[in-house]
UniProtKB/TrEMBL annotation:
This is Tetratricopeptide TPR_1 repeat-containing protein. Pfam families: TPR_19. PROSITE patterns: TPR. The lineage of its organism: Bacteria, Pseudomonadati, Bacteroidota, Bacteroidia, Bacteroidales. Keywords: Repeat, TPR repeat. It comes from the Bacteria. It comes from Hallella multisaccharivorax DSM 17128. Signal peptide: none annotated.
Length: 135
């Protein structure tokens, strides 16, 4: 019901009420926590979304959607290293999600996109110099 309100009806306010009602009865429901994160993301409220996606992962460390949402927030905030690390963590710890069967491939794509940004923005002369300094 909440997803229909959020995605089809574009009614974020009522969707949030629905997800919060679920949390009243099941405060560690990873799906409801992640769905609140999705609603926050749709409002570009990434800081609050990060909190809910992190809670979702804490509630269920195998829930792929939590990892995807958290990594996507960091990607949108242009913290590509965190986005990469979280998407990799999600790929290793999560299982294929029956709620969203495409989430695993989305995690792969997000990991690749983040890595491309990291490579593009890395100053390899600094990396070389730090290696030389360590030697």
């Amino acid at each position: 019901m909440g997803n229909m309100l959020l995605n089809e009806k574009k009614n974020t306010e009522d969707a949030l009420k629905y997800f919060n009602k679920v949390l009243e009865y099941h405060p560690d429901n990873a799906v409801a926590l992640a769905n609140i994160g999705v609603a926050m993301t749709k409002q570009s409220n990434y800081d609050d979304a990060i909190i809910f996606f992190a809670k979702s992962i804490k509630a269920d460390s195998k829930y792929a959607n939590g990892y995807h949402g958290l990594a996507l927030c960091y990607y949108n905030l242009q913290d590509y290293q965190k986005a990469f690390d979280i998407s990799q963590d999600g790929l290793h710890k999560s299982v294929m999600s029956p709620e969203n069967p495409n989430v695993y491939s989305q995690l792969c794509q997000l990991s690749i996109n983040s890595a491309q940004h990291i490579v593009k923005n890395t100053d390899y002369s600094e990396v070389r110099n730090s290696i030389i300094d360590e030697l």
